Amino acid sequence: EEELCQTKIIGVPHSKHVNLYVPRYLAVTLGFDTARRLLSEVAGNIFVDSLSSNKYWHFIRCGEDALTLEVALQTRCTFSVLTSTAGMTDANENETTKDGLSQVVSEISEVIRRRRKAGRHSGVVLISRQFIETLPEMDELKSAISSIVGPEVGPNPAQFPRFEEVEQQLPPANIRPLFKRLPRVVQRSLIWRRDAAGKPLLPRDLEAERIIGRFVQQELRSQPGPRKGGLKVKASFAPRFHAMEITTSSPLPSAFDCAFGYMLGHTAAMLVREQRNFYVACCAGMHLPPRDWQPCAIPFTYLYPDVPLPKKASCPARQIPKMAKFVKPNLREVFRHFKEAWVESNVFKSPGPMQFDTSGDVGPLSDRPYTLLADYLSVDELKQIIQPVLQPAPLVMSTDPYVVRDARVKENLGALEQQRLRYKPAIPSYLRGPVTSQEDELAPHSCDSFEELVKSFPLTTAGTSAIRLVPPVSSEGDEMVSTFSERSPTSTMLQTGMTETSKALTVGIVFASSQVPGFHPALAGLFDYLSGLSPPAKLIGFFCGYEGLIKDFWAPMTQDMVDQFRNLGGQDLLCQFGDPSTLAFKDHLQGAIKTIMRHQLDGLVMVGNLANQVDTAFLAEACAAERLPTKVIGVPVSLDCNFPFVQQSVGFDTVTRTLSAFVGTIGNLVKASRNMWIFVRTMGDAWSHVAVQITLETHVHMVLMSGSQLLGQYLAKIVQCLCDLIVQRHEAGQDHGIIMLPVGFVNDILELRVLFSELMEVMSRNHYEQSWDSIPSIASKLKPSTAALFEVIPRDVQYEMCFGGRERYMNKVDFSTISTDRLLLRFVEIELHRRRQLGIIKEDFFNGTCYPMTYQARSAIPTNFDCDLAYTLGWSAGIMIQLEKPGLLVHATKLECDVNEWRVRGLPLTCLLRTEYDEESQENRILPAYVHLLKQRTVKRPFSDLPPPKDRIIQTLGPVQFSGVLASLSRTTWYMLNEPLQDPTDSLRETAYLCGELQSTMALAKAESTLYAVNSLLQNAVSVLEAFKQLHDSKKRGTQSLADVPVEHLAKVWTTQHHNRSSDSHSDDRTHHSTRHEAMTRSTDLVLA
Questions:
Q1: Is-cis flag, bond preceding 580, omega within 30?
Q2: Which of 231, 251, 609, 851 has the fewest C-beta atoms lying within 10 Å of its C-beta?
Q3: Cα separation of 682 and 695, whole Å?
Q4: Which residue has the higher pLDDT, 1065 or 8?
């Protein structure tokens, strides 16, 4: 037969899980390095996010044991759960033992309790993907279900018992709790489906991270937490779940895998030329530089590790065993060594995105996979590479409550992190010399009732003007002239620079909002400017956000501290966690003022998003009321990029580029598989600018955003649009695609808002224990139509709706925890099944899954653009403090140009606010004036230039680059280019100039008719503007979207809108019911890209 067949069979080992392993010849497989790098980037970003917030526990499902342990060592995670955990705690354990679910849950719960006592309320747990499937309890569960239901499978599911009936017949110990926590789709598969042997069949995805996380949550709730006031209380536990394996299937290959794959291809070609048959191309010595790698080949029989060497002449008549669950002894020993240390302290490492160049360099030895190095290095050498130095003792910020901050040690950082520490951010060159401030009399405002705003901020509205920082070029006496000064009838110039001051300034800084890339560069810019003054100013950092400002948790910022965090993601230098999350109460403001007075601060810089800048405005007003010399300055750092009159906030570029890279990676997967639809949930509200930018960069097939200006959107309409797109692409032979929706989109679905309102009403009338058993009782009290909707929703999403808010001590629905992607996927499956039953579609072709991206980019390493912008704004905040300019938000314009052309401005904080009349309290509430460009009619629709959804092809941007040609390309966003079109600052300046010219003309006029004509003209202009204002106010009240209304006010919105429509139609005979029916049945404007 060999003589008749001339074809030579050569194998190339490719597996992201290291399914093939032969000592010396095949240490790792092709694709493993790329997979571990991508997973380490995502997991590292989440680790830093966890460290910064100190309130979430993240459960991440990675891959098989070898890949999971590799990521655990690369990122130094808190805890790891493998399918075979034998030997991880005790070297004398039997290698064949298998931990049960209850034992693993108890171990994780104990780790969480230990970390709580040490002041650490967050962590990361990595989970192997096959853990639930290989549990001893799962085998018992299959046997029990088989005995209850029987081994035969009938065509009619109605013949099988209900889920509740099966649950009651299961043994109560271990088996019944496991079945109860399984998703409905898993329960259905166990009851309805059988394999070839007649045993219950499991589906492909068991969501191990959610099952384990919920069991841990139940375990922690069953035991009281720490004592408070002499009583034991239950501490909060907020789990977050991630399934990351999907991102590792089709990414751009790493430099190591490019070199490895190229060499394997050459080796395979040489084997064919040499007439070799049944060989596997391999490579030895891959711990060396690529030029010293040793290409080789082994017979296929060597892939059977259990076959003795003399018998390897022929292949056994069975499949090649997979080695992905095999953990190399050296790595097991290393993990056992570091396990306790990583539980007791935070030693996280964020490797960051893969970097590419044209040199072909695969990086230093420390940057190679540890699974590879385990074949060549000793245990001690591996320990030195994985964690070079011991973690120092944490900084204790408070003993009651116990709060600590772990430091990042430079030697323990990843290669890219250390490279980013050396990056020198660029700033406009004129800011490094003497700077002139130019004040404008007029400034844009977001508030329609400015008079009401003045009542709340009488001092800051009267004493704060918008300013521009410009360079002086000449001086005549006290008058400064600048090349960048713009014509304005009222402009005052003051000069400053890095010169001698009368006394050393003392400035404080607070990280006021949740994690966004760019906090650390902003602090570094402020620190560097203050350090350059003579005498150098003192910078004080307040830890834990507002809690540190109120309770005076602080430390002086030193050069060493700042240098350890320059240009890195997260905010763990100062952290942002604790209570309160706002300064909305009087005692909070008083506590902050006492801290400011205690330190005699000359300036206070508040770095945060728009909601936190409202607190900054109140703090500036309080300082003015107390006649304190403290200059309060705000720095816009926000992933939502929704500041009015700000061209782009810090962090938006990093978030959109990082998430676009992840979306492009899973886009490669769906294009390669050609049978997968992925629902991606990303951050942002219903009008998310993040979702817009990602769509423009990646061309996802559909993005769901807020559309209706009156009633929101109907679930049936949304599902219909999604199913129509899926069917259209199926008919075109494209059974794959990506659907993206922001977190806030759930607010715009009408049926869900009604459901949330009823859930809040039900739960406010009775106390329900936070457990799965309480959900049926809650559902029984819903209205029939709402209860029917609630019953179809996936059970874990039901839990998120009912109890997600309690994880953060909220008595409301926490929209950020609701898995809208899983909910919509469920309804799409139901609709497609209905169409198949009706014969509209002929076959079952749909295969959907979900991939949430809500935490992957919040603490990513900032891009060069965001480092430059954050550093510039931090530097400029120091200038404004030295200029004694209080109550300003520092921002930059002309961001689409080179850095040297950027211009820095200061905007009064009151310009960011709006007022809203509260009918209950009969008072005006102060709220942030969020900007949503999609609501503006003058803005070009962002998706008009994209191909139709059914014809789109996903674009792959690749990971963020920090050096080379790709890093130096001009970076513009849709928001950056369109926001200036809505900014009236330049028009106001032109208006002020024209008014000044008109006033001068009137002063010189000699004829009375000229004065009369001008006065009449101005009076008519004022009356026309007043009419426009009234029309705008009435239209704004009539077109408010439900996505803009809090859920607790939903009933009032329905009543008000209904009443308005009825009163408008008093001339005809339509009744209240008919008007509501017309409003409910009108076609909604669903925004689909």
A1: yes
A2: 231
A3: 11
A4: 8
546 is written with which tokens?
A: 């507002």
**In this structure, are residues 918 and 925 in contact, taking their beta carbons and an 8 Å threshold?**
yes
Spell out where 695-825 has E strands.
702-705, 737-742
Confidence category of residue 485, pLDDT binned at 50, 70, 90: very low
Q: 16 near 249, Cβ under 8 Å?
A: yes
Distance of CA 343 to the CA centre of its chain: 25
Tell me the per-residue pLDDT of 808-839, one tens digit each, with 9 for 90 and over. 666 678 888 899 999 999 999 999 999 999 99
CA atoms within 13 Å, Cβ hemisphere of 619: 32
Cβ neighbours of residue 1026 closer than 8 Å, sequence gap 6 or more? none
At residue 987, does pLDDT exceed 60? Answer: yes
For residue 130, give the DSSP letter. Answer: T
Count of residues in the chain: 1089
Which class for 1038: exposed (0-12), middle (13-18), buried (19 or more C-beta within 10 A)?
middle
Do residues 709 and 1085 make contact, with C-beta atoms less than 8 angstroms apart? yes
Q: Compute CA distances 870 → 135, 562, 568, 651, whole Å.
A: 49, 14, 12, 8
In angstroms, how far is CA 162 from the centroid of its own chain? 39
Neighbours of 321 (CB within 10 A): 17
Q: Is the pLDDT of residue 4 over 60?
A: yes
More confident residue, 773 or 569: 569
Which distant-in-sequence residues (6+ apart) come within 8 Å of 307 by Cβ? 301, 316
Nearest to 435 by CA among 391, 473, 488: 473
CA distance 352 to 40: 8
pTM of the predicted protein model: 0.89
Buried b (16+ CB within 10 A) or exposed e, 905-919: bbbbbbbbbbbeeee
Residue range 118-143, pLDDT digits in tens: 888 899 999 998 898 888 888 888 88
User: Distance between alpha carbon 1032 and the CA centroid of its chain, in Å?
Assistant: 35
User: Tokens 């997600």 correspond to what residue?
Assistant: 804
**Mapped to the 3 state alphabet, what secondary structure does 676-704 carry?**
CEEEEEECCCCCCHHHHHHHHHHCCCEEE
pLDDT 10s digits, 843-895: 889 999 999 999 999 999 999 999 999 999 999 999 999 999 999 999 999 99
Other C-beta atoms lying within 10 Å of the C-beta of residue 230: 5
Cα 458 from Cα 156, distance rounded (Å): 73
Kindly state the percentage of the chain with pLDDT values over 70: 86
Per-residue confidence (pLDDT) for residue 1038, from 0 to 100: 47
Peptide bond into 425 cis (omega under 30): no
The Cα 732–Cα 724 span in angstroms is: 12
SS3 1039: coil
Cα separation, 689 vs 694, whole angstroms = 9
Measure the CA–CA gap between 410 and 405, rounded to whole angstroms: 16
What tokens were used for 680?
């991606």
* Angle, CA 40 vertex, CA 34 and CA 45 arms, to 5°: 135
Cβ(841)–Cβ(727) under 8 Å? Answer: yes
Tell me which of 40-44, 217-221, 532-536, 1014-1018 is least confident: 1014-1018
Residue 194 is given by DSSP the state: B
Name the CA dihedral angle for 60, 66, 72, 74, rounded to a multiple of 10 degrees.
Answer: -130
Query: Tokens standing for 86?
Result: 């034998």
Distance CA(606)–CA(158), nearest Å, equals 61
Q: How far is CA 163 from CA 136, 794, 989, 1072, in A?
A: 22, 14, 69, 44
Integer Cα distance of 290 and 283 in angstroms: 10
What is the C-alpha separation between 81 and 130, in angstroms, rounded?
Answer: 10
Q: What is the predicted pLDDT for the residue at 148?
A: 85
Q: Output the 3-class SS for 538-583.
A: EEEEECCCHHHHHHCCEEECCHHHHHCCCCCCCCCCCCCCCCCCCC
Token couple for 779: 């559902």
